[in-house]
Amino acid sequence: MYREREGFHKICINKAIANIFIALAFLVWAAPCSYLNYLYLPHYFNIFFGQIVGWGPYLMSGPFTQMCLAVNRAVAISYPYWFNKQHKVPWTNVMLGVLWVLSIAMSLPAMIDECSYIFFVESVSWSPMDTLCSRTLSEYVTNLVLVMAIVSFGINVSSIVKIVRSAIGLGAVMDQNLSETRKRKRRKMFIQCVIQDCTHTTDCMLNTYVYTFYSAQWFQFVCGAVSALTVILMDGFLMSVFHTKSSTPSQTREIPSKSHTVTNGTFRSRAASRVSGTIMTTTL
What we know:
The chain is mainly alpha-helical and 284 residues long. The protein has one domain (2-246, 261-282): Up-down Bundle (Rhopdopsin 7-helix transmembrane proteins), CATH 1.20.1070.10. Helix content is 73%, strand content 3%. The protein has helices at residues 2-36, 43-54, 56-78, 80-84, 91-107, 132-170, 176-208, 217-242, 264-275, 277-282; strands at residues 117-120, 125-128. Strands 1-2 form a two-stranded antiparallel ribbon. It is elongated. The model is unreliable at 245-284 (pLDDT under 50). Residues 3-243 form the 7TM GPCR serpentine receptor class x (Srx) domain. InterPro entries: 7TM_GPCR_serpentine_rcpt_Srx (IPR019430).
């Protein structure tokens, strides 16, 4: 149980760190620049903070960690014995490290002039520069986010199907209250997967395509700044609302009766609890 929660929490911490970087870019750069005027806007720093909001940490905050959570959940459900083994290689740490390096490497081409994702003081929003290079990179990132969202959603759906099948198999020995609790968790898990997989894709669409439909300042502001802040707000809100801590079985033991007999119902209830433990700790 501990190793399942440990891997999940490490991924959540990395998602939170990436969201903090994005929020700091708004606080440290966008807000002061909007107040001071664009005349005091160093272009190189604008490019640097733009890659935080639109590329590196953004990819880590959204599609990369969503994929990690989906894979973590799927492996825990499909291969619980392997998942709970003590491995010499900390696979979760390795995977997260590789994804951080990949997200930063993918943001490096945008450091080239005329290829960047920057903050526009005139519209108080973040968006790609109006150049072929910048638009092309934005389209690549949008397509990547869309593909990863589809793959992540597919993995989550397969995990939910496995959970449902396991629940049906345990239905005969499972307490009614526990069964209802599991159903509510599955519904919450499905809702969370759909929303989180769609939020970053929607934000990329707004920043890459939709913002070009209408040149009004308020529309640019909504597609650029409001959309980006809403994504990290929704991320944190969903994780807070839908993630419930799994309670570990009590270490205390009941005092056995003099006959030391265990009723059939008690035995079956404990068996169902142990078999479903792995699945329960991977639901959010």
